[in-house]
Amino acid sequence: MGIATAYPGSTLTVNGSFATAYREINLGTSLITNTDHYINYIFTGTGNLTLPPTDLAVSGPIPAQTALKGREYIIHNTNSSNLTVTASGSEKIDIAGVQASSLMIPKGYSAYFKSNGAVTTTGVSWIVTLVASANTSRLVGSGLYRNTSTQSFSQSNSTSPSNYGILQTSLPIVVPNTGTYSVFVRWWGITTDTDNGTSMSKTSAYVMLYNLTQNTVLDEIEYYVTTSSNSPFTFVVNLLGTNVNAGDTLQIRIRPSVPNNSAMTWKIGTVGYSNYTWAPSVLVIQQ
């Protein structure tokens, strides 16, 4: 079919401009509807949008999978806070091969969602095809690399990278392009011991960004936390990797330092008294 052309070269050829639906959302929570395509999220607080269910009722003889298969939504977050886009019910979103119930879109970023046409209540019904920002920074792969296993990181005074524990992630962190990368480590775990030599208990660890391909330390910081033994604590550190080549594999390595007690460990992925599952995550952004 051709529009403004007598010689269409594709199933649909449009020889001119075209328009799709545009909507601004200024609510903390909202549903994405049949009539949406491009959504500009302008709410000034943390928000949540929910994708349509795959068994969305459709009038007439059109089956649900035919109605949604191939449908695309573009969601842009101009908000000053993070925006979470959630699949309906127990449905899942494919984010670079990882099934997730939601995707977090940072400030200034856009995410593209495509329906795969599956009619399911628990499986993958939407695929994230792109996450990008208006500037040159962009998420790498899924962007978010979650820890998926129980781990302990032992205290050590050795500065050799081989004496650091390697944070296990759901996918290897393989960078697609040559350049500079910001890597955010979002810790959630416990320490088995603290330094009680001062009025406040504290612990620390060295967090390292390591280029496994080049066997090079890219960045490192010692981070101190005020906490108590065996109580969950969180923090975020930003590490910078320069002169990274396309195809390089990056790792996060952790070495607890304070207190100077060889029996002390930092632990993650442990089920505690309140059924916490302590699992850090890593966010990788190309600059």
Outline:
The chain is mainly beta. It has one helix at residues 64-68; strands at 2-3, 13-14, 22-25, 29-31, 38-41, 47-50, 72-77, 83-86, 92-95, 98-100, 102-105, 109-115, 124-133, 138-146, 151-154, 165-166, 173-174, 179-191, 202-211, 216-226, 233-244, 249-258, 265-268, 281-286.
Overall mean pLDDT score? 85
How do the helices and strands follow one another from N- to C-terminus? EEEEEEHEEEEEEEEEEEEEEEEEE
Q: Biggest sheet: strands, sense, closure?
A: 7 strands, mixed
Beta-strand portion reads over 45%
Secondary-structure map with pairings?
Elements: E1 2-3, E2 13-14, E3 22-25, E4 29-31, E5 38-41, E6 47-50, H1 64-68, E7 72-77, E8 83-86, E9 92-95, E10 98-100, E11 102-105, E12 109-115, E13 124-133, E14 138-146, E15 151-154, E16 165-166, E17 173-174, E18 179-191, E19 202-211, E20 216-226, E21 233-244, E22 249-258, E23 265-268, E24 281-286
Parallel strand pairs: 1-2, 3-5, 4-6, 5-7, 6-8, 9-13
Antiparallel strand pairs: 7-12, 8-11, 9-10, 12-13, 14-24, 15-23, 16-22, 17-22, 18-21, 18-23, 18-24, 19-20, 19-22
